[in-house]
Structures are given as structure tokens and as C-alpha cells.
Amino acid sequence: QITSVITMKFSGCIFFSLLLFQLKFAFGKQAKKHKHALITILVDGFRNDYLELARKNGIRLRDLKGFKHILKNGVETDYLQPVYPTNSIPNHYSLMTGLYSESHGMVENWMFDPIYGTTFLLAANPESKEPYWWEGGDPLWITAQRQGKRSALYYWFGCDVEIHGLRPEHCTPNTVPSHEEMKDSIIEAVEQIKDGVDHAGIYVETLDITGHKYGLNHTKIIEGIQQVDELLVLLFKQLKEHKLHKTTDIMIFSDHGFTQVYPHGDNKKVVSIELDNDLIFLMVPGFMTSVLPKMEHAMEVYQILQEARNKQGHFDIYWKEEIPERWHYQNHYRIAPLIVQAHSGWIIEWLNQLQLQGNARDYLGTHGYVPESVEMRGMFYAEGPSFKRRFKHGPVSAVDLYQLMCHVLELQPSPHN
Asked: Where in the cell is it found (predicted)?
């Protein structure tokens, strides 16, 4: 289905393809030069209807010149369907590997590995840099590197990790840069393309941080949308100045949507649950909470959760084997035995527990709800010589994009979902 957004150009014959296949392995990194370079921009937390939200706040499309350029010259989709759970790390890796969470193993932002006995904390702690966390999938930059093509990544989670013995040619490790630093990275990425890099990837996190802190009903969100647009305007300007606009494809997408939450006041939506620390080995609190009960207390923990649900409602409880198959979240050893999933817009407050993701009542906006929720929908746009002009496509899945990127870069994709 995703190939319908591409202008397909077929040439050559079987003999020619076999010859290229032989040459690629004969010359290694001197593989056939790509026809088009690719720039991917991942904007964390950019909901599919944010342009409409901007319009409702007086910012018309003509005021957003970067997005206007894409809509006039490229491809727009209805929305991007995230994978479960609708958090950043699982979706970042699904976007770049084409795999569901249960396949690539990056099952949460914060997770425990029972084989190695280590914890992954949003790729920030030293243990998170160990290759075994990341080697359940083959991200685009590793696929490219293996096939003799070059990648440069900016602020992308995992780009500083050796995966299957490989690294991208350039990696600016994850941090939260200022808007001016982001502009500098856009300029540098275009310079990399000019110097022969095949793929440049840029991660923009500030809109997600803004959404958590201020919620959707705040002018800061509109300012964040405008800042993303400024980056796009700069990107298109730089590509044109360097005469790269006719040979460079752009894909801009998000990992998940966002929803407003109400932690305080008369309209607050908060469920409070208390679990004795003596009953559990580990808990990762959140709007999707992973619970690892001590084996001898597993049923007791489940009963406490059931009682809280029966009394307060607004969340669901799943044993690992009961998690809905459509979420593709059963078949990995890092998935916790018990999952507690809040209903959309509701906050779960875990009493007497360390809040690894910050106190839930500090958030005015969030994600982490079921992927079918309208508020969790992300966005996807594309523009460039490989893509149709002024084309509107239906929804796409987070696991669709890796194959599309490989197609644009003329890469053989690794196994995917």
C-alpha cells in the first residue's frame, strides 16, 4: 500500500541487476551511488492534526511556509498509526526498523532485561548503550552502512551505539538542543548531503517536552509548531542554495500524538493505586505501566489491581498472554508479566512508588495510551523527486516507513513486519 505514494521508475533487466549485485560485493563500500539522498526528520509528539490546531489559533497555512511547500509539492497522509506502547523509544525503533515492539525488543522508554539484569532508562544511563538492547532490529543507518551507504544522525536515540558491529558515519548524541542549535544541525546535515552522505536523520524533541509541560491548550504548542516550520523553511532554502533540491527526498514524521490531561481541579481525571513495595520486584510507572510482581505475590498483586479497577475504573489490566494481539506486544522476554493501561485522558497515580517518568500530576499533556486512540495519531509528510506531488494518502503504520526509506535509498531491507 505504501508504494502508491512513490513515483515508480523501473529500468534495467535481470542481467543488469545481477551484475550490480556482484559489483556491490566485489567492491564493498564502493557500491552503486544512490540516485537520491534522503533526509528524515522525526518530530517527537507532533499530532496529525497540529496544522489544524494552528489554524484554529489564527496561524494559517500560508503562515507556515515549510508545511505549505510540502503540501503543494509532496505527499500528505491522513495520519501515522503508532505501535504499542505509544511512547518514544518503542516507536522510534519501529519507525527505523519496520518492526513491532515485540520483534525489536525496545518495549518501553524504561525497561528491565531479566537476562542481563540491567535497566534501560530512556537511553540515558551507561547500560542503555550496550548493543544487546538494540540488536533485535536493524535500524536504517545500520542497513545503509552494511550496504556501503553513509548516514549522519543528529540527536537520534541509539546512533551512538555499536549495533551489529556497525555505527553511522556521523552521530551527534541525543540531547535537547536550543532552537538555534537545531538550525545549525539542519545546515550541517545539508552539508553532509553535499559531501556525499546518503542519509541524514534529525530528531526534534522540543515539541514533546512542551506538550508534557503545558498541554495542548497553550500558546507554547503553537510556538513549537512554528519553530518546526522554521526548520523546514531553512532546510528547503539550504537544499536549493546547494542545488540539492532535485536530488534529495524529505520525509518528516512523528512517533505518536498527544492528549490533554487534567491532574488537578474539579475536572481532574486521576486514578490512585497503592501497591506495597514488598510485593513487587520492579514497576515502571506511566500511562502504560509495566509491573513485575515477585513470583510468590503475583496473584495478590493482580487482585489488588482488580479491586482498584472495580472501585475506580478508567484502566485495564492484562497478563502478558492476554494483551490484545493487534498490539503485537506479547512475544518478547522484556515485556512485563502484568500491564496496566490507563484509558485515554486518565492519569494513574502510583502511591509509594518511584516515578521514573516524573510525577504524573506534573503533566498537562501526554501520550502512552492505546494506538487506536485518535489522540495518539502521528503525522507523515514527504517531498522530493521520488514522491508524487499534491498527493493525499490514507493512514500509514509506523512499521511501514523503514521499507519506504530503503526503497528511496535503493537498499535491500532487513527482515521486517
From this structure: Cell membrane
